[in-house]
C-alpha cells in the first residue's frame, strides 16, 4: 500500500446476482443486523465516500445511528458540483463535517451555490475527479481511513486504479436481475480475470440469511 493515501475499504450490500440496486434505484438490501454492523464500521473510519448518483437517488445521511460512535466526515464525489441544496447531506452540513470533491469542470454558479453552506470544497482533477489526487489531498488533511459506500461507478473508479485495501460485501438473500440494474462494479470492467486485483478471504460472517464477506488485497 502506498503511504501517500488513506486506508480504503470498499463496502456494499449486493443481491445474490451482484446487483446493488434495482432498475428503479431500490437498494435496501441490508438487514437491521447488517445495518448495525455497517454503522459500527462507519464509526471506526475517518471518512465515507459516495458518488453523486447515490446522493441523488438515495438521499443518504451517511451518519452513525444504529450504534454509538462518532460520525465520519462525509465526502461526495461530484465533478460539477450538482448536489441539490435540499439533499440531507447539504441540509445537515452544519452538523456533520462534509466535503464535496469537485473537478475544474464546476461552473462558477455551482461553486458559488456550494460556498453558501458550511462545507469544504476540494478540487481534484480536470474533468472527472482524479481519485488518486483526491486521496493524497485527504491524506494531507490527516484522514487515515475511508469507507467507500458506492455506487457501482465510484467502486470501479477505485478498483481500476487499484486504490483500495479491503472489500466488505454483504450478500443479501435477493435476486434482482435486469441489465440496467446497478451492479457492484459499473464502468468498463477488466478484459481478463488476470487483470483483477488478487483478493484473500479474511472472514465470512453469517447474519441469518445475509453473508458478510471480508476480502483483503493480497
Ligand atoms: N446496495 C448498496 O450497498 C449500495 C447501492 N447504491 C446504489 O447505487 C446506485 C448509484 O450508483 P451509480 O449510478 O453507479 O452512481 P455513483 O453513486 O457511483 O455515482 C457516479 C457518479 O459519480 C461521479 N464521479 C465523480 N468522480 C468520479 C470518478 N473518479 N469515477 C467515477 N465517478 C465519479 C460521476 O458524476 P460526475 O461526472 O457528474 O461527477 C458519476 O456519474 C443507486 O441506485 C444507489 O442506491 C449505492 C451505494 C451502495
Ligand atoms: N451496506 C449497505 N447496505 C445497503 O442495503 C445499502 N442500501 C447501502 N447503501 C449505502 O448506504 C447509504 C445510506 O446511508 P444512510 O442510511 O442514509 O446513512 C446509501 O446511500 C449507500 O451509500 N449500504
Automatic annotation (TrEMBL):
<dbReference type="GO" id="GO:0050661">
    <property type="term" value="F:NADP binding"/>
</dbReference>
<dbReference type="GO" id="GO:0008703">
    <property type="term" value="F:5-amino-6-(5-phosphoribosylamino)uracil reductase activity"/>
</dbReference>
<protein>
    <recommendedName>
        <fullName>2,5-diamino-6-(ribosylamino)-4(3H)-pyrimidinone 5'-phosphate reductase</fullName>
        <ecNumber>1.1.1.302</ecNumber>
    </recommendedName>
</protein>
<dbReference type="Pfam" id="PF01872">
    <property type="entry name" value="RibD_C"/>
</dbReference>
<dbReference type="InterPro" id="IPR050765">
    <property type="entry name" value="Riboflavin_Biosynth_HTPR"/>
</dbReference>
<dbReference type="InterPro" id="IPR011549">
    <property type="entry name" value="RibD_C"/>
</dbReference>
<feature type="domain" description="Bacterial bifunctional deaminase-reductase C-terminal">
    <location>
        <begin position="6"/>
        <end position="213"/>
    </location>
</feature>
<dbReference type="InterPro" id="IPR024072">
    <property type="entry name" value="DHFR-like_dom_sf"/>
</dbReference>
<dbReference type="GO" id="GO:0009231">
    <property type="term" value="P:riboflavin biosynthetic process"/>
</dbReference>
<comment type="pathway">
    <text>Cofactor biosynthesis; riboflavin biosynthesis.</text>
</comment>
<dbReference type="InterPro" id="IPR002734">
    <property type="entry name" value="RibDG_C"/>
</dbReference>
<keyword id="KW-0560">Oxidoreductase</keyword>
<dbReference type="InterPro" id="IPR006401">
    <property type="entry name" value="Rib_reduct_arc"/>
</dbReference>
<comment type="similarity">
    <text>Belongs to the HTP reductase family.</text>
</comment>
<keyword id="KW-0686">Riboflavin biosynthesis</keyword>
<comment type="subunit">
    <text>Homodimer.</text>
</comment>
<keyword id="KW-0521">NADP</keyword>
